[in-house]
Amino acid sequence: MKQSRMSIVVGAIALGLSTAAFASPASVALAQAVKEGAHIFNTDSFGSHEQNFHGRHTTCSTCHIDGGRIMGRLPNGKRIPSLVNAVAIFPRYNPKMHKVITLETQIRSCVRNGLLGHPPAYGSQTMADLVSYLGSLAHGQRVMIGGMPR
Ligand code: HEC
User: Fold this and answer.
1) What angle do CA 7, 9, 15 make, to 5 degrees?
2) pLDDT on residue 12
3) Distances, alpha carbon 78 to alpha carbons 63, 66, 74, in Å
4) Could you count the other beta carbons within 10 Å of the beta carbon of residue 134?
5) How does pLDDT run across 10-46, given as a tens digit for each residue?
6) Quick count: other Cβ atoms within 10 Å of Cβ 21?
7) Residue 83: CB within 6 Å of ligand 1?
């Protein structure tokens, strides 16, 4: 009896510790934002009525293939960078806008000009989720503002 109560206590402490280490409210929230960001990246058309070759709604993943992990090309041959280090190389100078822009501004530009949709607002949950997803792709990479896409 005594022993089983003891093992329950030990078990409860172990569970408490592992929960604290691996599933704190902060890490759960971040994992959720990354997951939500991936979902948005692959499914959200941001109100656009554009369709891809297969008659599906255009999303980020129409152009940024394999979840943004590999480089692609637009039909006109223009290079579409991989997004594996995007979070690490912004802010960057944008030659077309003639100014330094943040990752959020780049995302809004892709929604407006690539998707022909309504860009998510700065500071919105959608923006935070997308940036969290892109951050997960670049996790561990060296920050090099102004750098080149890989
Ligand atoms: C119609 C194709 C297209 C769509 C759709 C698109 N993008 Fe892009 N994206 C591009 C191209 C082309 C570039 C290269 C820079 C430029 O022309 O703005 C780019 C650049 C980027 C970059 C900067 C990468 C770097 O390291 O330079 C990010 C980040 C990005 N896109 C995110 C997104 C997100 C998030 C979405 C969906 C909300 C999206 N894009 C939708 C074509 C697209």
Assistant:
1) 100
2) 44
3) 11, 18, 5
4) 27
5) 444 444 445 555 689 999 999 999 999 999 999 999 9
6) 9
7) yes
Q: What percent of the chain has pLDDT over 90?
A: 75
**Residues 6 or more apart in contact with residue 135 via CB below 8 angstroms:** 34, 87
Residue 69 near residue 82 (C-beta atoms within 8 A): yes
In the block, residue with structure tokens 């919105």: 124
pLDDT digits (tens, 9 = 90+) for 57-68: 899 999 999 999
Which ligand 1 atom lies nearest to the CA of residue 58?
5
- 60 touches ligand 1 (CB under 6 Å): yes
Distance CA 59, CA 147 (A): 26
Q: What pLDDT is stored for residue 33 in this prediction? A: 98
**Residue that is written with structure tokens 């951050």 in the block:** 135
Give the number of the atom of ligand 1 that is nearest the alpha carbon of residue 134.
29
Which pair of tokens denotes residue 97? 């806008």
- Answer whether 58 contacts ligand 1 (Cβ < 6 A): yes
Q: Is the CB of 49 under 6 A from ligand 1?
A: no
**30 vs 35: CA distance, rounded Å:** 9
* Ligand 1 geometric centre to CA of 109 (Å): 8
